[in-house]
Design a protein that fits this description.
- The protein is an alpha/beta fold and 307 residues long.
- The chain folds into two domains: 6-44 and 155-302, 3-Layer(aba) Sandwich (Rossmann fold), CATH 3.40.50.1100; 48-153, Rossmann fold (3-Layer(aba) Sandwich).
- 36% of the residues lie in helices and 17% in strands.
- The chain has eleven helices and ten strands.
- A six-stranded mixed β-sheet has the order 1-2-10-7-8-9.
- Helix 9 (211-218) links the parallel strand 8 (198-203) and strand 9.
- The chain is globular.
Length: 307
């Protein structure tokens, strides 16, 4: 049974609906495109962040954890959500931030401190070394009551929360698409959908071919890498959090037409890629595609064109 504090917090969340994305070229190709609006779950714990953290935190609380320690970048959606939930539940949190401490903290880092998260900054080399510690008790120097949470919440417990997203898909569909950072959300979707469905991840970072092996590891080598799922590597726009005028223009146009906000790190890149694949004729006429909006709109504060 879910921890009662988490259960109460979940009861305050909004509803993630399916919105149909209507465009003339989509209709011309005989495709239906739907957007799973996980961005509507909560202003802060939006999208896949709640999905992933829900059972991770339940696991941590089962060990009577009093402090959660995790890692992320200066605009990390993961740390942002963790700090908020820690504040809401009265659990101490600590964030290890990649890179040098800026003279002026950005809005994300300021939020972390406002919600009681303590933060340390480490070099990029030191940050990469932290990725070696995969288990909740594996970080050297952990004290009693401290729980180590890997980057992006890439744990088995996270897959359980993502599976609930799939359970909510109350319509027939052929393909599910999701943006990929650590690819944990993608792994959770692959693990939960039926064998007849195709799943496509859209890598948000450059040189992300390694993600396929990471997904296999999270799935314990189930669901082989074949036509059933793959990770599209061609829409990273130069690397993680890198953008281009074409991407920013697409996001602005999408918001104008559909009145749905996107961000350029994850969901914006995925939808750009889906549009491109539809125009290229990749999908078969009659197919229904569900794309997951993974939230993270707070990250827009790091880009001059967004708020």
């Amino acid at each position: 049974m879910l921890n009662k504090q988490l259960f109460a917090l979940e009861g305050k969340l909004g509803t993630s609906v399916l919105d149909k994305i209507e465009e003339p070229f989509i209709r011309e190709h005989g495709i239906e495109l739907w957007l799973k609006r996980d961005d509507l779950l909560h202003p802060v714990i939006s999208g896949n962040k709640w999905r992933k953290l829900k059972y991770i935190l339940d696991h941590a609380l089962s060990f009577n954890a009093r402090k959660i320690i995790s890692m992320g970048g200066a605009y990390s959606n993961h740390l942002h959500a963790l700090a908020y939930i820690g504040h809401a539940l009265g659990i101490k949190t600590h964030g290890i931030i990649r890179g040098e401490r800026p003279e002026v903290l950005n809005p994300t880092l300021s939020d972390l401190l406002a919600w009681g998260m303590t933060i340390d900054f480490v070099t990029r080399s030191e940050y990469r070394q932290l990725r070696a510690y995969k288990n909740h008790d594996s970080l050297p120097g952990l004290q009693a009551g401290e729980y180590w949470l890997v980057e992006g919440g890439a744990t088995v417990q996270a897959l359980q929360g993502v599976a609930e997203l799939v359970d909510e898909l109350a319509m027939d569909y052929d393909v599910v698409c999701a943006p990929c950072g650590t690819a944990t959300t993608l792994a959770g979707i692959i693990n939960a959908v039926s064998e007849a469905k195709q799943v496509i991840g859209f890598a948000a970072l450059k040189g992300a071919s390694f993600l396929a092996a990471d997904v296999q590891q999270m799935l314990n080598n189930k669901h082989g890498h074949n036509n059933r799922w793959y990770i599209e590597l061609g829409y990273h726009f130069g690397g993680f959090a890198k953008v281009s005028p074409a991407l920013l223009g697409f996001i602005n146009d999408f918001e104008q037409v559909h009145r749905i906000k996107l961000e350029p790190v994850y969901t914006g890149k995925m939808l750009y890629g889906i549009y491109a694949l539809i125009k290229q004729g990749y999908f078969k006429s009659g197919q229904k595609i569900i794309a997951v909006h993974t939230g993270g709109l707070q990250g827009n504060r790091g880009f001059a064109n967004f708020s």
